[in-house]
Amino acid sequence: MIPSVNSSGSRTIGLLAYLYGPGKHEEHSDPHLVASFDGMSPDPGRDPNATLKDLQQLLDQPVMALAEHARPAKHVWHTSVRADPKDRTLSDEEWADIARRIVAAAGIDPGDGQPGCRWAAVRHADDHIHIVATLVTEDGHRPDDYRSGARAQAEARLIEKELGLHEVATGDGTAAQRPTSAERHKAERQGRERTAREELRETVRRAVAGARSEEEFFDRLVGAGLLIRKRAAPSGDLLGYKVALPDDRNKGGEPVFYPGARLAPDLSLPRIQERWSADAEDNPAPRREDAVRTGPGTPAAARCRTASAAWQAVLVVEHGTDAVAAAHIAAAGEVLDALAKTSAAHTRHELRDAATTFERASRSHVRAVRGHDRALRQAARDLVHGGPALSRGEDGATTAMAIDMLFFLITAAAHWHARKGHAQQAKAATRAAEHLRTAYQAASAQPLGVLYQRGRRLGRPMLQRQTALLREALPELAEQILAEPGWYALAATIAEAEVVGHDPATLLTDAAERRELGTADSVSDVLVWRMRRTADLPADASHLPEISTAGSRSAPRRSTTRPSAPGRRRNGEEPSRKTL
User: Which conformational region is residue 228 in: left (phi greater than 0), alpha (psi within -120 to 50 degrees), or beta?
Assistant: First the structure.
């Protein structure tokens, strides 16, 4: 149940006309009063002798009783209280009780003999009511409505429990500001799917992803077509910025600008500058094997490095200090934005939804210490500069690998938030992980299909030998893996790793022990990507020669470095958590 408070109105009659009217698209049905300050207010909806003017004059009477100079300029308090779509339909009596509790909690009409304001609750749909009040008490004073929105939200949490309704996760004040009802109505009139505030928030968030300077950040905003206003000190130092959509205008025809801080708390200029100040090192050189296989600046190379950065970040989120973990979680949001911006069409929608949903999980009251998250921020930068990826080949396969690693990072973030009691953030991260799961299924179908066919073509003796190896290396998981369709893709990966000289048993053990596998739909899929990344195997196997049984037996074995070894660098990756 969500109370959405807007206390800046000046015309009681105008708001009542909307509440009792047909709505913008004839969506209002049977508008009528369910409760009021005295229980006897006229109801223009069901009483043919009552008019909107009658109700307006009754509500405004304490305001009009004041001298004209003493009347508040903005005297109309308004909130909508909306039930969850899955909740049962509440009766008028239940909505009436909810209205009385909300105005009492918000300080509009506190009860217990205290002077209150005049108010009325109107219902014109099954799932919500509107409460309109005038902000002068019966004795001519201003009500104690400080933080009325937060107080109304707290009461709503109690109401949900008592009535058995869907319980909304408790907020902590770090969420981005919701669009106002006026902004939503304006978007509807203009035929927009989202409000200007929401479009600007996403555009600015993507412009920040991996950016390293004010110049680069603002160049990206200009490239995205936004209008920009900068605020500078007399010294010339930049203090803030505002952005607007070119076609979002006010009544005077002027662009409607939003400061970065009003889009989201972490999009204010000072918070963005914290990220830049932490990026002290130059761009790290691309990993040798990525450059050889895909080229140093290609989308595939960027995705390989993203997978590596996500792999390392999971350990930090699970075991690092709170401030460092918070920085990695925030940087994970940048990676999701960059991946959504540069991925092929068949995954872009789900990745965009994952990034948008995870935005809520990227902030909490745990202040992030930036700098240790440099590898993830560099991954976001690599993705942006690597450009759009194709849906097949090494681009498509490395996209699947990166999504797989990011799924576990976002899941780790959900667990971290849950341990800290961050209910909204934990829920948002869990929802983002589900979007990633769907995106992974689309991205992995082709490359895993190739590996599956390669595994099916392996000779029976080799499959028998690999089955025995699997049972020896992972006795607790072996039977589950062998029953999965992905076993043949894993068998092909084991064979390829053996051909190039790795010890497959060590690779398997390391891949299984490195991170939890309980949230995976397919353990074999996860092991495929972990092993291919660790063994530096191409993500796309469609152009590889068939696996030779003789070659796999005779190739010299290379030692496989455990990726979690503390304080050591492997293949150019960031050091493990003990050196962060």
Answer: beta
